[in-house]
Amino acid sequence: MELYAHDSNNRFRASALLLVLLFQVTGRVAGESGSYPLVVSTWPFLEAVERAWSAVNNGSSAVDAVVDGCSACEELRCDGTVGPGGSPDENGETTIDAMVMDGVTMEVGAVAAMRYIKDGIKAARLVMRHTQHTLLVGEKASAFSISMGLPGPEDLSSSESIEKWNKWKENNCQPNFWKNVVPVNSCGPYYSNDLMVVAETTCSGDDPMRTVGLRSNHFGLHSHDTISMAVIDKFGHIAVGTSTNGATFKIPGRVGDGPIAGSSAYADSDIGACGATGDGDIMMRFLPCYQVVESMRLGMDPKDAAKDAISRIARKFPDFIGAIFAVNKNGTHAGACHGWTFKYSVRSPEMHHAEVFTVLP
Length: 361
Known about the structure:
InterPro entries: Ntn_hydrolases_N (IPR029055), Peptidase_T2 (IPR000246). There is one protein chain. By secondary structure, the protein is α+β, with helices and mostly antiparallel strands. It has helices spanning 8-26, 46-57, 62-76, 120-130, 138-147, 159-170, 196-201, 208-212, 280-283, 288-297, 302-316, and strands at residues 38-42, 96-102, 108-114, 135-137, 181-183, 190-192, 227-232, 238-244, 265-268, 272-278, 322-328, 333-338, 342-347, 355-359. The chain has 11 helices and 14 strands. It has an 8-stranded mixed sheet with strand order 4-3-2-8-7-1-13-14. A hairpin with a 4-residue loop joins β11 (322-328) and β12. α2 packs antiparallel against α3 (62-76) and α10 crosses α11 (302-316). The N and C termini lie far apart (52 Å).
């Protein structure tokens, strides 16, 4: 085809046609810094990213691709902290937290402290699609999921999670998440103690941790984790999803930031998306992913928005451990972290396979 005709009208028509062809091929106009479809996920969960990429590249919506990707991580039990069979609570039981958010409609579906159901992200999608609620919890979330067709009930423990729990019990239930309490014995039950300082100073010869049950910072790559994933589909629609079995040896009933929109993940198709991982008990106090998206709305690039959100937390909690990825609607992505080295995975049309990006604290 002759794109450069001799008269101005033909040149104008040829230029317009070239721009249309460019948009159809790349999904973006010239000058934008990214492209889509696009998948971004916390950690080197490459199989999960490829599963989501395959779905969205073959025409699935951003929401369905996110669910496919997070489901893969649940099936693979990524790092032992996603899906069934990991992160036992103080009673040795594994429970599931998950969330999905549609950045077009701003609808959210989530489940928390869900027992007996292994498909956390699928349960979250059912909440979004079939209820006017945002979050269902505990055994009622399990009953709802079964009524909507998910398999269950089933034991979410594994031989690995039971072995981990037994070793923790043998270590006098340390470390744990209690504070300002006095235990009847090292594994509880625990009772409130307003005079904790006195109790600590009078326990000569004893380990105050074992006597008072203080919380230690034991968040790390293999003690808890979350897959948090963002997908931009071929139409530029954005969705995010998360799944986790929470903090290892958490107090039963604890819910982290995994199912909390704005904390573990957030999406607005007009702006972009964010995913987070780390000490959810602290991070959920700041809604860092909501902060990231709103900062990008005000003109910050993804890198500065992510760094700003992490810095806000670190100023108040300098010992916290956490990380964020940010991606704008054009596909430009970046990460920020504190307390550990963070890795996140990306798949875009320019890549032959998912690639891992490393972010230093």
